[in-house]
Design brief:
Elements: H1 3-20, E1 25-33, H2 41-52, E2 61-66, E3 70-73, E4 78-81, E5 100-102, E6 106-114
Parallel strand pairs: 1-2
Antiparallel strand pairs: 1-6, 3-4, 3-5
Helix pairs in contact: 1-2
Amino acid sequence: MHELSIALSIVDIAGEESDRRGGVAVLAVHVKLGPLSGVVKEALTSAYELAREGSPVAQSRLVIEEAPLVIRCAQCETEEPVPSVYDLRCPHCGTPSADVVSGRELEVTAMEIQE
């Protein structure tokens, strides 16, 4: 379960930012997660619960925003979300595309702190 190592990294990032700001309390860590990131949302949430124990961010919660899977169609010259990772075709013309614009994200986007 690689989600645990990812959760530990998120806890480290949040802890470092808390220290940088003089030890402020971290209430929540916001993460953007794409369907092609290779991370299972539920597994990451559970792993975060374990990773935060005994850390400076032990009272924080993990807020996950799911990023849509968006491809660029060379035929239509548009960027459109697709309904499935198994069908990377333009929803308008049906042209297959491997040009993924969004959907690989795994990034900490924000933190809620209490000063």
